[in-house]
Design a protein that fits this description.
This protein is mainly beta and 267 residues long. The chain has two helices and 22 strands. A hairpin with a 2-residue loop joins strand 19 and strand 20. The longest helix has 20 residues. The termini are far apart.
Length: 267
Amino acid sequence: MKKTIVLFLVLLSLIALILRFNAKFAEVFLGFKESSGISIASDPTGATVFLDGQEVGKTPLNVKNLSVKTYEIKIQKEKLIWQVKVTLTPGTVTVINRDLSADLVSSAGEMLTLEKGKGLTIVSNPTEADVEVDGKQLGKTPVTTDVESGEHTILISSTNYLKRSIRANLPESFNLTISADLSLSEADLTAAPAPVVTQTPEVVVKTTPTGFLRVRDKPSLAGKELVQVKTGETLVLLEEQGAWDKVRLVNGTEGFVSAVYVEKKKP
């Protein structure tokens, strides 16, 4: 009886070791099949999730007991679509957070995956983004660090991109890989140089004794008459020279008129 119990305990120990260190062997010879899960959140919420082309629900969504393989994942909310290929890790849950956008430069998010090991690995798009872990500068992506298990806050930032803050719980004896996409920030136009736009001053021809106003080539009565303009016509004011104003006509002709017979047009 004692031998039977001992043999039974030894067998259980062997099965436990096989399950822990050789999942494929356990699946083939013992019939045990290790599964995985996936958790998907999106902004906006209520996006439809497809796994290998089949609709499985709407965000936020948790799917359990998935076979360990590579999946084609698509998240769609009306015309907003994002898709990716994900290889699940046995016995773990892969987490995907996604901000959906009509264009890729405004789309952002992160994917968190676990595998046996230790520490934290961070990759990003764009690369060479600055990384802080629990308020301490770590370096630039891609980067790997040896951190203790437990909850950590990761901040990823890059010039001209919106910062991405992620809180994650690192289990014991696992390495957490964070793959983050940053979105372009809106341009700060408050400090950007811009041309100064002013309204071109104009003058209107007043009533004259002759019913018209002479435009001369010089600011003097001795100047040659170039053309005559009628009462009420609008002229572009180029320069004020005392008793004379330099003006431009609609046809592009430039000359001088008596300032007495024109008045500035109100904006």
